[in-house]
Amino acid sequence: MIKYIEETTNYLQDKGFDNPEIGIILGTGLGQLINEVNIIKEVSYNHIPNFPTATVEFHKGKLIYGEIAGKKAIVMQGRFHLYEGYTLQDVTYPVRIMEKLGIKTLLVSNAAGAINLDFKKGELMLIEDHINLQGSSPLAFKGVEELGERFTDMSAPYDAEINSKFKSIAKANNIKLHKGVYASVVGPQLETKAEYRMLKIIGSDAVGMSTVPEIIVANHLKLKVAAVSVLTDECDPDNLEPVNIADIIENAAKAEPDMITLFKELIKTL
After folding, report:
1. What pLDDT, in 10s, does the model give residues 159-208?
2. What's the pTM?
3. Strand runs labelled E in the chain
4. How far apart (Å, rounded) are the C-alpha atoms in residues 108 and 156?
5. Which of 23, 60, 140, 179 has its CA 20 to 30 A from that of 34?
6. What region holds the Nucleoside phosphorylase domain (predicted)?
7. CATH no. for residue 122?
8. What is the count of structural domains for the chain?
9. Secondary structure string (H, E, C) spanning 140-165
């Protein structure tokens, strides 16, 4: 993997990806943040050596380098998931590349279902902790200790200072920002009523199919990290309706202006 990382990093440096400070991973229906970026360079994933390719139709599949709120950033417009058939090492490969290029902070967004029924669709949740239900770890491979400490501490995976700033920004801008625990499952099928009940019992406030692998690797690489979920559906097992993917994307789009405000205002303070 070290050889692959060097090849990919060299390619992007040659393309002008020069000393970014911040990495941003955009989740489902949250692509409009890109309009806030002064784009310097962009490269399609399928042109980048050793990079996975996004296969989900609403994920664009571009790595973008530019300036946002006065900071140099790399933005992943489209991310990778286990349910696309990738390994956890594939899914998290871009985080390793962004770190190698120079980022010190990683900001992540995702779409999630609300397990906590006090939370409503269209609202945002700041992730304060997570539960990994994906069945493995992105650090479970031979030679991982050459890239960072094998036994990565996860006692505080989300940066407390950044989370505090997110809360202050939300309050100042009258944005409803819940706080909670995100459970990451494999997917792509949605959960059964019994699974939603289980997720609530074990302490989840929201559930999704991404983010946790990237967070684990960011901690492995000693990056500061924070993540926000847009809640796109309400997972009430006693009143469960068939899922509507178009409705999920529409709810993500409704919350997008608030997400953009949070991210832009935060980046100004970093």
Report:
1. 999 999 999 999 999 999 999 999 999 999 999 999 999 999 999 999 99
2. 0.94
3. 22-26, 38-44, 62-68, 71-77, 105-114, 124-132, 177-184, 206-208, 224-234
4. 16
5. 179
6. 21-268
7. 3.40.50.1580
8. 1
9. CCCCHHHCCCCCCCCCCCCCHHHHHH
